[in-house]
Design goal:
With 145 residues, the chain is mainly α. The chain contains three helices and no strands.
Length: 145
């Protein structure tokens, strides 16, 4: 523990910001790259599973590592990034469902309830990824006299 409380607070806040940005970037980058490579993939159930899986894997690795390194600040920053990611998934899927009907005249392969289910699943996964590694942090196992 540092002697200066201001440095502790600044370090914690900085770690929260870094963790949240590191966790929110993978789904955004993966979805943007996918739209360039195969723009029709997101309209299929298999394509959505692929995008979601890669996003969970990348954000999960960042979330676990940052939660272990940063303790409480890393866990809450990681979970904050996952919450922002849930909002991103909601808006992205809502746009894809509307775009599919406008461009192709056919709806997406997955039902409209997916617009809600994917962000809920993303949030639950984010909660597990962010807070379970924190409990394994050796810094939390100190004994007070």
């Amino acid at each position: 523990m540092a002697n200066d409380a201001d440095k502790e607070f600044l370090g914690g806040c900085l770690f929260v910001a870094i963790a949240s940005i590191a966790v929110i970037l993978p789904p955004i980058v993966i979805c943007l790259l996918d739209q360039k490579e195969a723009p029709m993939r997101v309209y299929t159930s298999d394509g959505l599973r692929l995008l979601f899986g890669w996003s969970v894997a990348a954000s999960g690795v960042f979330g676990i590592v940052l939660s272990r390194l940063g303790g409480l600040a890393g866990s809450f920053g990681s979970f904050g990034g996952f919450l922002c990611g849930a909002a991103y998934w909601f808006m992205h899927l809502q746009q894809m469902v509307a775009r599919s009907i406008a461009q192709n005249g056919t709806p997406t392969e997955y039902p409209d309830s997916t617009i809600w289910l994917v962000p809920v699943a993303w949030t639950l996964i984010g909660f597990i990824v962010s807070f379970v590694p924190m409990f394994k942090n050796p810094r939390l196992k100190h004994k007070d006299s």
